[in-house]
Design goal:
Layout (H helix, E strand, L loop, with lengths): L1 H21 L2 H14 L4 H13 L3 H10 L6 H14 L3 H10 L5 H13 L3 H14 L5 H18 L14 H14 L2 H20 L6 H21 L3 H14 L4 H15 L4 H7 L14 H17 L3 H14 L4 H13 L3 H14 L4 H15 L2 H9 L8 H13 L3 H22 L11 H16 L3 H14 L4 H14 L1 H8 L14 H5 L16 H9 L45 H5 L10 H6 L1 H6 L10 H4 L16 H19 L1
Protein name: Signal recognition particle subunit SRP72
Keywords: Coiled coil, Cytoplasm, Endoplasmic reticulum, Repeat, Ribonucleoprotein, Signal recognition particle, TPR repeat
Pfam families: SRP72 (PF08492), SRP_TPR_like (PF17004), TPR_8 (PF13181)
């Protein structure tokens, strides 16, 4: 049996070797199992079985074989395979222990050690490991190690805000370009990062198009992560519509990377905010895919959980919002967002007092974050109308008391409440803080030190505020301090004189001597430009060029005012200088004494009367015999006889010019035509 078994084992080993070279690990595994039936504790056969299982993706089964045969497969023999199985099963801490317990650190273990450190987000140790590998190894995997090294630098820049050092890597591959772009995003250099991503896209297309087996769909799937980062840059730049369009294009491709899909879905939710909630609820399902927690960093996962809590608040899921925010707070007790989300939810439920109490408790427990919490508390108080209490909360933030923005806010709020004394007290405390700060920085120095621009600005604002509210005596000391700092400041001196004129006129007279004379003051004003400006009410006409005689004449009579020539008024066409103008010509027709009203309907009554072709008024007018025998009872307007008639004639301003009715009729016709054309 011994020689036969040995021969069978030899044949099986030959089969295992052949299958291994061909990459047929499933068939090789069958041969290895037959060998183990002959010799169950064969170390080489057990190692081969573990390798075949790993190649087939059966990591759990491979780890089971290793743990079952611990006496045979010691850590020195199988350390790499065991650590790799644990790494692929996302047991990162166990993989780290296995690597560290190995007696000999091979290059394979160091490579895996770098990957484990990256997953644990220990970027400094990871960077040192890859540097050591690149320095001490030369093989076909050097390009991959450089890519991993650039990925570590990008992660440091993005998550730890560390300024990346120049590694001197030649960006010959799209992976290196992509990692370099990520590092630039971490530094806030978005335009440069976009250019790097465009270069990475070009390199990716070039490298994949060389392979005839790669389809256009495969290229788009590989470019998805690059396009996702481009969309993120657009979102940071405020181009949300472009970013949203690119995000949706990537989702339509249905990439297999669950981490990429989760990040894109989260970013779409941040764009939607409290709008388009239905779409956000659909997208949030992509963030719950299996394996997402192993693909993303801790900060990415935390941001997704924050957005889930906010979405629950926007969709009025109060219990879900409280549950998620409480879970986040237990994971990160010092983080602000969970508490702020809880407070926002309480405010939506009209429980403002409870929200303020929650924030106050957090501020007491975490003094380092008290400033931001107190700002939120003040905002809630203002929303409730308690402006004075909001001011008290703001003044309790010691590190912000002296800031110009805080001083301005407090003064505005106190002014709104008409509490001028408290507003002046805010100015005084801020000015005193800067005085003490300058005294500390200039300790032991006897040379006069000018005040800082912020300090002087506060003094000036305090003086202006006091002058505005009638506190002249209090403003004088501030103005004197400003003038002392800059004696050439005419504006401050003028304010000081104005304030003293109401309190001490004699002092104002003394100070007025320091004002510069009118001769020394030059006002560089372009009069022509000022008069010709858009807001000028009077535009001076440009004078023409004068001859020598006219110039001398004007110089001699420079004090004489020029008389404006009056334009001749236009006279009516039928004006007769012999006739006295109508004294009532400036009054409306209805208000004149001789107005008798208009005769309406005269022509309408004559329309349609009589037989067809007959005439009424026109026939009598054309009859010469009747015209001669019966003279008109009144002069016809516009005729020559009417103008040269008796003293009862209508004045020329009152008469209608000859041909006026026809002209009026033509104008009416033109208006009708115009109206018709307009419609």
């Amino acid at each position: 049996a011994g020689p036969a078994a040995a021969a069978a084992a030899a044949a099986l080993w030959t089969e295992v070797n052949r299958c291994g070279q061909n990459g047929d690990f499933a068939r090789a595994l069958k041969s290895v199992n037959k060998i183990l039936q002959i010799s169950k504790d064969d170390v080489t056969a057990l190692q081969c079985k573990v390798v075949c299982l790993i190649q087939n993706g059966n990591f759990k089964e491979a780890l089971g074989v290793i743990n079952t045969h611990t006496k045979v497969l010691t850590s020195d023999i199988i350390a790499f395979e065991k650590a790799y199985c644990e790494y692929r099963l996302n047991r990162i801490e166990n993989a780290l222990k296995t690597i560290q317990s190995a007696s000999q650190q091979t290059d394979k273990l160091k490579e895996l050690y770098g990957q484990v450190l990256y997953r644990l987000e220990r970027y400094d140790d990871c960077l040192a490991t890859y540097r050591d590998l690149i320095r001490n190894s030369q093989d076909e995997y050097e390009e991959e190690r450089k890519t991993n090294l650039s990925a570590v630098v990008a992660a440091q820049s993005t998550w730890e805000k560390v300024m990346p050092e120049d590694l001197g890597l030649r960006e010959a591959t799209y992976e290196l370009c992509y990692n370099s772009a990520c590092a630039l995003i971490g530094q806030g250099k978005l335009n440069e990062a976009m250019k790097k991503l465009q270069k990475a896209e070009e390199l990716c297309r070039q490298s994949l198009s060389e392979d005839s087996d790669v389809t256009e769909e495969d290229i788009e799937a590989e470019l998805a992560i690059i396009h996702g980062q481009m969309a993120y840059i657009m979102q940071l730049q405020g181009r949300t519509e472009d970013a949203l369009q690119l995000y949706n294009q990537i989702i339509k491709l249905k990439p297999t990377d669950v981490g990429l899909l989760a990040v894109i879905a989260n970013n779409i939710i941040t764009i939607n905010k409290d709008q388009n909630v239905f779409d956000s609820k659909k997208k949030v399902k992509l963030t719950n895919a299996e394996g997402v927690e192993h693909k993303l960093s801790k900060k990415q996962l935390q941001a997704i959980e924050f957005n889930k809590a906010l979405l629950a608040m926007y969709t009025n899921q109060a219990d879900q919002c409280r549950k998620l925010s409480a879970s986040l707070q237990s994971q990160s007790p010092e983080h602000l967002l969970p508490v702020l989300i809880q407070a926002a939810q309480l405010c939506r439920e009209k429980q403002h007092a409870k929200a303020v109490g929650l924030l106050q408790d957090f501020a007491d427990q975490h003094p380092a974050n008290a400033a931001e919490i107190k700002l939120t508390m003040a905002q809630l108080k203002i929303a409730q109308g308690s402006v004075t209490k909001a001011c008290m909360i703001l003044r309790s933030i010691e590190e912000l008391q002296h800031k110009p923005g805080m001083v301005s806010a407090l003064v505005t709020m106190y002014s709104h409440e008409e509490d001028i004394d408290s507003a002046i007290e805010v100015f005084t405390q801020a000015i005193q803080w800067y005085q003490q700060f300058q005294a500390r920085t200039n300790y032991g120095c006897c040379v006069f030190q000018p005040k800082s621009p912020v300090h002087l600005s506060l003094i000036r604002e305090a003086a202006n505020f006091k002058l505005k509210h009638g506190r002249k005596k209090e403003a004088i000391s501030d103005l004197e301090e400003l003038w002392k700092q800059n004696p050439k400041d005419v504006h401050t001196l003028a304010q000081l004189i104005s304030a003293y004129s109401l309190v001490d006129p004699e002092k104002a007279k003394v100070l007025s001597k320091h004002l510069p004379s009118s001769d020394t003051m030059s006002l560089k004003v372009d009069v022509d430009a000022l008069e010709n400006s858009h807001g000028a009410t009077y535009v001076r006409k440009k004078a023409g060029k004068l001859t020598g005689d006219n110039q001398q004449k004007e110089q001699g009579q420079g004090d004489v005012k020029k008389k404006k020539k009056k334009k001749k008024g236009k006279l009516p066409k039928n004006y007769d200088p012999k006739v006295t103008p109508d004294p009532e010509r400036w009054l409306p027709m209805r208000e004149r004494s001789y107005y008798r009203g208009r005769k309406k309907g005269k022509k309408k009554d004559q329309v349609g009367k009589g037989t067809q072709g007959s005439t009424t008024a026109g026939s009598s007018e054309l009859d010469a015999s009747r015209t001669a025998s019966s003279p008109p009872t009144s002069p016809r307007p516009g005729s020559a006889a009417a103008v040269s008639a008796t003293s009862n004639v209508i004045p020329p301003r009152h008469q209608k010019p000859a041909g006026a009715p026809a002209t009026k009729k033509k104008q009416q016709q033109k208006k009708k035509k115009g109206a018709k054309g307009g419609w």
